[in-house]
Design brief:
Elements: H1 7-19, E1 25-31, H2 51-59, E2 61-63, E3 66-67, H3 73-82, H4 111-117, E4 121-127, H5 147-151, E5 170-174, E6 183-184, E7 187-188, E8 198-199, E9 218-219, H6 228-246, E10 252-257, H7 278-300, E11 307-313, H8 319-329, H9 346-349, E12 353-356, E13 365-367, E14 371-372, H10 375-383, H11 400-403, E15 417-420, E16 426-430, E17 433-436, E18 466-469, H12 485-501
Parallel strand pairs: 1-10, 1-11, 2-13, 3-14, 4-5, 4-10, 6-9
Antiparallel strand pairs: 2-12, 5-7, 8-9, 11-12, 15-16, 16-17, 17-18
C-alpha cells in the first residue's frame, strides 16, 4: 500500500532532519564600492584604519585574487545570489527607483533558496538592487527608473518579486542604493510600511566632494540618510539574537548587504571626524565598525565557532572617491590595480574577500586562488551537501577544499574566470593571462577631464582586444595582443564558447 505524505509534512521532516545537523551558520557581509586598497590587510599604505576587517583576516583566510562578477552593483548581486553571470540574462545597466522586474527569475534556484531547502532560516537586511515590481493605482506594473516612476507607486500593493519571494524568510532594506536612487523608503517583507511623502530636501545634508551622488527623489518621514547603516546593523543584530534565542538548533543564513561605502559618503554622526581621511574615510571606518559589531554579536551569542563568516565587496571603488581620496588624503582605494568601478581592468572587479570558520579554516592563511563571488553558491552547496541541478549556478565552482586546506596550493579550482562591465563588455582570465574582448576600459570614459590624468596609452592601438600577463604586468600597462596572438586567439575563442554554452562549470 502506498502511503501519501502531504508536501508540507515532507518539508517539515526535511527541516527537522537538518535542524540538529552540524551545518554551520553563514553570515555573508557585502560591502558596496569598497576597493581592494580600502582595507588595511590588503594595503599597508591605507590611510583608514580597518581593525575589525584586519582581525577577521588574521582569524581566517584572505583571498588575494578574488573578483566581483561585474564592475557594478545590479549584475554582481544577481550573480552572487544565483551563481550565474548576469550577462547571460541580456540585462544591461542597473536599476534605480521603481526599476524592475526582479532580474532573478521566479523559477531560478538562489543561494538563500538552496539553503532554505536544506533547513536554514534565511534573512537579508540592506540593499537589494536586483529589481522589484511596483504597481500604480490601476494595478499596472511600473518597472521604470527615475523620479516620475516613483511618484506613481501605489504603496498599498505588495511587491510580488521581493527578496521574500526569492529565498529569504525575512527582508528589511531598500529597493536600490539606499541614499542615491530616487526611492528613499524602507521595505519590510514585500511592502513599504512608511511611504515617502515629499521630495528630499538636500540642503540640510552634508556638502563635500563625496556627497554629490544623491538624486532628488521621494523620501519617507522615517528615513534618515545619515543613519542607514546603523539601522541595518540593528536589524541584523536583532535577527541574530532572536534566532539563537528561539531556534538555537536551526542554522541561519544572514545576508547583510551594507550601504557603506557607496556614495554619497554620509557617515553617521558618531563617526564624523573619526579618521584623518575625510568623510569617505569616516564612512569606511563606520563600515569596519559594522563588521566588528556583527562579529561581536556572534561572540556574545556563543555561535562564533559554528559560523562561517564571508566578507567581500560588489565591485571596485567609485571614480569620485578614488580621485578625491588620492588627491586629498593620498589614499588609493584601487591600489595596486589599474582602473576603478565600471572598468574591466583589475581595479574594477578585484575585491577584498575574507572568510572565517574556526572549525575548518586555518587562522592567518592566504590563498592566491582565482575566486569569483559566483563561487559562494557552489561552495555553500558543498558545505550543506546539496546537489545543484544543471540549470542552477552555471558559473559557480566549489571552493570548500580551499577553505579547509585540502586543495593543493598548485592546483587551481578554476581554469577560466569571466568578467563583465555595465556595458556587457566581457573579459576572460586563465592563470596569469587576461583577455579583454574590447578596447578601452569597457566602462568609464578616460577622455573625460577628471579621468584623463589616469589614462594609459594602449601599446597595441590597432588591436580589437587587450591581452595582459598579470604575473609580469599586474598594472595592465602593456597590451600583448600582437606579441602573443596565439594566446589572444585561444582566450577569445574560449570566451565565445563559455558565453554561447550558457555555463562555465562542467555539466553536473
Amino acid at each position: 500500500m502506498r502511503i501519501c505524505i502531504p508536501a508540507v509534512s515532507i518539508l517539515f521532516l526535511v527541516a527537522t532532519a537538518f535542524a540538529g545537523s552540524d551545518h554551520p551558520n553563514i553570515l555573508l557581509i557585502l560591502a558596496d564600492d569598497l576597493g581592494y586598497g580600502d582595507v588595511g590587510c590588503y594595503n599597508e599604505q591605507s590611510k583608514v584604519a580597518t581593525p575589525n576587517l584586519d582581525r577577521l583576516a588574521s582569524q581566517g583566510i584572505r583571498f588575494t585574487d578574488a573578483h566581483s562578477p561585474s564592475t557594478v552593483c545590479t549584475p554582481t548581486r544577481y550573480s552572487l545570489l544565483t551563481g550565474r553571470m548576469a550577462f547571460r540574462t541580456g540585462f544591461r545597466g542597473v536599476f534605480d527607483g521603481a526599476g524592475g522586474p526582479c532580474l532573478i527569475e521566479a523559477s531560478r534556484l538562489t543561494l538563500p533558496g538552496m539553503l532554505q531547502q536544506t533547513g536554514y532560516a534565511t534573512a537579508c537586511f540592506g540593499k537589494w538592487h536586483v529589481g522589484l515590481t511596483f504597481f500604480d493605482n490601476q494595478g499596472e506594473p511600473i518597472q521604470k527608473n527615475g523620479l516620475e516612476a516613483v511618484k506613481r507607486i501605489d504603496y498599498g500593493r505588495s511587491i510580488p518579486d521581493a527578496p521574500i519571494h526569492r529565498g529569504f524568510d525575512q527582508f528589511f532594506g531598500t529597493a536600490c542604493c539606499p541614499t542615491t536612487d530616487w526611492l528613499y523608503a524602507w521595505i519590510e517583507g514585500d511592502r513599504v510600511p512608511v511611504p515617502p511623502t515629499q521630495i528630499i530636501d538636500r540642503s540640510a545634508l552634508p556638502q563635500h566632494p563625496y556627497s554629490r551622488d544623491n538624486r532628488p527623489g521621494m523620501i519617507a518621514p522615517d528615513f534618515d540618510l545619515e543613519e542607514v547603516d546603523l539601522v541595518l546593523l540593528d536589524r541584523s543584530k536583532q535577527f541574530l539574537r532572536d534566532h539563537v534565542a528561539q531556534t538555537p538548533d536551526k542554522p541561519f543564513f544572514l545576508f547583510h548587504s551594507a550601504q557603506g561605502v557607496h556614495l554619497p559618503s554620509f557617515p553617521a554622526n558618531r563617526f564624523k571626524g573619526k579618521t584623518n581621511a575625510g568623510p569617505h574615510g569616516d564612512f569606511i571606518f563606520e563600515l569596519d565598525y559594522v563588521v566588528g559589531e556583527l562579529l561581536k554579536t556572534l561572540d556574545e551569542l556563543d555561535v562564533t565557532d559554528d559560523t562561517l563568516v564571508l566578507f567581500t565587496s560588489d565591485n571596485g571603488p567609485e571614480v569620485t572617491s578614488v580621485i578625491n581620496m588620492r588627491g586629498d588624503y593620498q589614499h588609493d582605494g584601487a591600489r595596486p590595480w589599474r582602473g576603478m568601478k565600471r572598468d574591466n581592468w583589475e581595479g574594477g572587479h578585484r575585491v577584498p574577500m575574507l572568510a572565517r570558520w574556526p572549525k575548518q579554516i586555518s587562522p592567518g592563511s592566504t590563498t592566491s586562488q582565482t575566486f569569483c563571488l559566483t563561487d559562494i553558491m557552489a561552495t555553500c552547496a558543498a558545505i550543506v551537501d546539496a546537489d545543484l541541478p544543471n540549470d542552477a549556478a552555471e558559473d559557480s565552482f566549489n571552493f570548500l577544499p580551499v577553505l579547509n586546506g585540502s586543495q593543493p596550493h598548485d592546483q587551481s579550482v578554476r581554469d577560466f574566470t569571466l568578467h563583465q562591465t555595465i556595458s556587457l563588455a566581457l573579459a576572460i582570465r586563465q592563470g596569469p593571462w587576461k583577455y579583454l574582448d574590447h578596447q578601452g576600459s569597457g566602462g568609464n570614459n578616460y577622455d573625460q577631464p577628471q579621468l584623463r590624468p589616469f589614462a594609459l596609452e594602449d601599446t597595441a592601438t590597432n588591436a580589437l582586444g587587450q591581452l595582459y600577463n598579470l604575473s609580469s604586468d599586474p598594472g595592465e600597462t602593456t597590451n600583448l595582443h600582437f606579441e602573443h596572438p596565439e594566446v589572444a586567439k585561444r582566450l577569445k575563442s574560449k570566451l565565445a564558447e563559455l558565453r554561447e554554452s550558457g555555463r562555465s562549470v562542467p555539466t553536473r
